């Protein structure tokens, strides 16, 4: 734009220079300055933001087409309650692994469920589209948009007065934080605050259940992990943003009376799972004959995870929703103390990663090429183990699927899904 000044029509040609009057000179100056300032305004408002923000936030700033009678009708029908005492739930991250399973479970028992997801490409978006198609068949519509879009969120609450929000949208994964830290701040902190801002000001305020993570236990060595243990030594930016979420939840509960329940999931796995997780890419690599890296701790210490099957996690999510009390604020003000909870949702039986690989070898009938190596210090912790007695007491949470059974279901889904001509490459 700035180089356009060279051919500004009002610039007189060289041959006419001598005839130039004082008036012409000032006109020329005026033109020069107005074009320069237009250029500056253009740069500041339209160009500069993109040079300061990450790819993810730029992607999320794109405007999604929404609105209109047909769109609102789809939303109302998706959120419609069909059972007595049913609730209507806005599920963020509904095209994700956990969100898609929770949405279907809600719809199946007669609750209303509307999805919201930005379909970002952190992992293969075609998997998200596949889940979306599955949800559509069950009558769950996913609005395509970002949790940072305040006017979209407000609009959704105008169309449906949701009783609950199941907030699962987040930037997940611990290692990716070193590549794209901004995406964690964008979704897990800024996005969460935006969502809570809208929730606190709508009438009536919904109750909110949201996903924290077992990663908040960080470098803790006392096991099993209990909710009252310290959570002030995160080992990754991901964990730090989830911990920040728990503190932010405290604030919104304290000031505005929002009912908030945080769920610390422990390594969730199962059909329609996440391709960035070890059980998923181990399966892909074992089948391809690729070597898989198996981490060990210091002094050949065992790396183990409290793997939790998706159906057990879904039961925990529903239990938390069903026991969530109403928010107490109105008119943007707290009227009485409101519920604030945090629960572990794990399986209570950690399995060494080497055992995970052995189970996969058996199920896939292929021997894995193992490359045992020292765990790099890039966010992973050596061991996780949940104490789930609090969730058991509050809503009878009781995981029933062991790793062997759960992986069998996962492998069956995987072989079926990827033999249908889809690639597991991304
Ligand atoms: N899967 C696990 O083992 C595990 C463990 C602990 C915590 N969690 C948490 O549980 C939740 C669900 O995890 P998941 O495994 O289903 O992950 P996922 O990545 O499959 O699902 C998250 C979904 O949120 C969407 N999303 C991300 N940022 C968004 C934004 N700004 N606006 C709108 N949508 C956005 C993504 O497109 C994705 O579909 C996350 O909060 C995650 O941090 C998961
Ligand atoms: C598990 O947590 C409960 C509190 O919810 C506590 O009373 C109990 O001692 C813990 N169990 C273990 C084995 O740490």
Q: Could you characterize what this model shows?
A:
The chain has 13 helices and 15 strands. The chain has helices spanning 22-52, 55-60, 69-79, 97-108, 125-137, 150-159, 181-201, 237-256, 278-288, 310-322, 353-364, 389-395, 403-419; strands spanning 88-92, 112-117, 142-144, 164-167, 207-211, 260-265, 268-269, 291-296, 304-305, 308-309, 329-330, 333-334, 340-345, 351-352, 369-374. By secondary structure, the protein is α/β, with parallel strands linked by helices. The model is unreliable at 1-21 and 40-62 (pLDDT under 50). It has a 7-stranded parallel sheet, sandwiched between helices.
What's the short story on this structure?
It contains 13 helices and 15 strands. The protein is of the alpha/beta class.
